[in-house]
Design a protein that fits this description.
Shape of chain B: elongated
Oligomer: heterodimer
Mean pLDDT of chain B: 83
Number of strands of chain B: 12
Order of helices and strands of chain B: HHHHEEEEEEEEEEEEH
Number of helices of chain A: 11
Low-confidence stretches of chain B: none
Radius of gyration of chain B: 20 Å
Largest sheet of chain A: none
Radius of gyration of chain A: 19 Å
Structural class of chain B: alpha+beta
Structural class of chain A: mainly alpha
Number of helices of chain B: 5
Helix content of chain B: 25-40%
Mean pLDDT of chain A: 76
Distance between the termini of chain A: 37 Å
Strand content of chain A: under 5%
Order of helices and strands of chain A: HHHHHHHHHHH
Chain lengths: ~220, ~220
């Protein structure tokens, strides 16, 4: 097993993960963002409320708020997964178009706005960038409800303290952050991660497992 | 349904990330349809994805970007409806398109005494495959190890191996550290759906002779 404790590599990976350098290097004058969006990052509650209004009232202003928050992050996400800037922006737009069209299916009590939009982005990314099908389990279908599998205990509020998650992710040990990033941001399978890091499969799986356990525990404590 | 064996958390996390081979996502989706515990766990894994998305540095988008989105929305092109799944009795709905006639009318091919298989076409699986195996009662799959990962979902019947007993709905999530020798242990054939990302390696001298026959 290779021990990766080189501080330089560690720092580089931190930077890669955050992608901060890319944005900081763009001069202020060149950046063109949506004007009306509030500066501060909206809370999960706020995002869910906007998406809820799009769902029930087709509220265009709320949609633009959502766009202001998510489009730049979706673009970032798509670029991390290998799209060039133009394609990434197209995919961010396409994701938001799907958000508008599918909004009526959104149920605030079952999922936060971010997780709902993440699913749409993930599936679109696989479709467009990997040209492969992804078999999705339909979590909200009537069928599952009829089968009685769905229980009210699944309410989003009872789940993880999602607001604190980004912070918790950054606190992961670097070797765990690395495998999580490779899965979420490079879309690499377990075998591909093994090849890339020259690690045995068991090690890759246990790092992913530990990272997930750590996040679940930390979030559980904060309920 | 009483499910005792579940996917590894690392597999669920990669499913949430959209980073499993297609064949693996198929097997996992079929398990998730039946398993409340894993659906709950998946929601948590997707929360991790959402947090990562929220935590991403914002890449500025062009100011005309939103106009393009409104134009596309107003052009009235409705989102294509997802292909409806044909429910097939006794099967998770995600498998319906591959097995439209259910488990009773599968075009099996015999690969060894007591062992039949059917390969699912059009499932992308790299060096591996997605296939059904039907194992007659009492039949043992020779001792083997896995080049990569293997997901096995029991659709009907049951088998037992060194790890435990697996029945309908159970999922065995195995990697190259596992050597096992499953045996179908009830009076009906055990039918399972298997996704591999590498070829299986049979370890015994005689079993190795089976390799070209089974070709897993």
């Amino acid at each position: 097993m290779i021990i990766r404790s080189d501080p330089l590599a560690r720092a580089q990976r931190k930077l890669q993960y955050g992608n901060h350098t890319a944005t900081e290097m763009i001069p202020q004058a060149v950046t063109t963002t949506i004007a009306e969006v509030p500066d501060n990052t909206p809370a999960a509650e706020q995002l869910a409320e906007w998406l809820g209004s799009v769902a029930t009232d087709r509220d265009r202003r709320c949609f633009e708020h959502l766009f202001g928050h998510f489009a730049p992050r979706l673009k970032s996400y798509m670029m991390r997964l290998g799209a060039d800037a133009v394609t990434a922006e197209d995919l961010a737009q396409e994701t938001m178009i799907k958000v508008w069209h599918k909004a009526s299916l959104y149920d605030r009590s079952k999922a936060g706005a971010s997780v709902w939009i993440f699913r749409i982005a993930r599936n679109l990314r696989i479709d467009k960038l990997r040209r492969q099908r992804f078999h999705e389990v339909e979590l909200d279908t009537e069928e599952i409800a009829r089968q009685g599998h769905y229980q009210e205990s699944n309410l989003h509020a009872d789940r993880l303290d999602a607001d604190r998650l980004p912070e918790l992710v950054q606190e992961l040990p670097i070797e765990q952050l690395e495998v999580v990033s490779l899965a979420f941001f490079e879309g690499l399978t377990h075998s591909e991660i093994c090849q890339k890091l020259e690690l045995p499969l068991g090690t890759v799986k246990s790092r992913l497992r530990l990272a997930f356990a750590k996040l679940r525990n930390a979030m559980g404590e904060n309920r | 349904m009483n499910i005792n064996h579940h996917p590894d958390d690392s597999t669920l996390l990669s499913y949430a990330a959209g980073a499993l081979p297609e064949s693996f996502s198929l097997v996992l989706a079929a398990h998730l349809e039946q398993c409340e515990r894993c659906r709950q766990r998946l929601l948590e894994a997707e929360d991790v994805g959402a947090a990562l998305l929220d935590g991403m540095a914002a890449m500025p988008v062009a100011s005309k970007s939103i106009d393009k989105v409104w134009a596309a929305i107003e052009s009235g092109e409705p989102a294509p409806a997802p292909e409806p799944r044909q429910p097939v009795a006794g099967l998770p709905s995600v498998l319906g398109r591959y097995l439209p006639e259910g488990l009773d009318r599968v075009r099996w091919r015999s690969v060894a005494p007591g062992i039949r298989q059917f390969i699912l076409k059009d499932v992308e699986s790299g060096h591996g495959s997605a296939r059904l195996l039907s194992i007659d009662p009492g039949t043992t799959i020779p001792h083997h190890t896995h080049g990569g990962s293997e997901l096995t979902l029991i659709l009907k019947g049951s088998f037992a191996d060194e790890i435990g007993r697996f029945s309908a709905g159970d999922l065995a999530d195995l990697d190259d550290s596992v050597h096992h020798q499953p045996v179908a242990d009830t009076d009906e054939p055990c039918i399972c759906l298997i996704a591999t990302d590498e070829r299986l390696r049979f370890t015994g001298v005689f079993s190795r002779l089976l390799q070209p026959l089974v070709g897993i």
